[in-house]
């Protein structure tokens, strides 16, 4: 007995129900692209005005679209609800892991995923590297934001006053956090100058700022609102991470971060 869904096999012509569904989705996409009236929507979708009106009206009734006077069609509240639900249903680590695995395989270096938690970096995921000794970082570990490349990537949208405050907090003296040992590799002036460069290029380096001989290249992850919600980094010891390699890694790390951002709805 033929399968009731046999018309959906590859190469089969879509059923009328499938065609209606695809056209309805195309209407939503047209509105998302900026089409505000039936004529513009019909031109993008390739349907008649009457068919377009029927589809758009049904989508408005179901709250997938809305119509505002003097404006026209806009995306509706139901899509907002579904967007937040889709974001919350799949954890960040699960979304990011395929891209982190790919980056790890391509570089051979240690790959991290982290978020900002108050004034610290919180590591959520680690792919151990094949180059050099095993790094001491671990999932669940916390580090000062301004002392790590991944932390600096999380601060690219923050004002200089925030960089200054966090730098002071990362010092073991003058009101700083006693958990973090003194490390003279980075001064406040160096931090400010480097952060300006990182903001311009949308990446960040750790030039042994936190631990001698450890370097990394990091990039931010953004959600649908373009807010930085996480960051990734590729790290290794100095012999395996000369400055020339770090500069060459920037577009590769940024590309992985952008792919993860796209999974979160960022354009």
Task: Describe the protein.
This protein has 267 residues and is an alpha+beta fold. The protein has two domains: 15-85, Winged helix-like DNA-binding domain superfamily/Winged helix DNA-binding domain (Arc Repressor Mutant, subunit A, Orthogonal Bundle); 90-263, Beta-Lactamase (2-Layer Sandwich), CATH 3.30.450. The protein has helices at 16-32, 38-45, 49-61, 77-89, 92-107, 149-154, 160-169, 188-201, 243-263, and strands at 65-68, 72-75, 110-117, 120-127, 142-144, 204-207, 214-222, 228-237. It has nine helices and eight strands.
Provide a compact summary of the structure.
The protein has 267 residues and is an alpha+beta fold.
Pick out its properties.
single chain, 267 residues, alpha+beta, Arc Repressor Mutant, subunit A, Beta-Lactamase, 2 domains, two-stranded antiparallel sheet, 9 helices, 8 strands, elongated, disordered N terminus
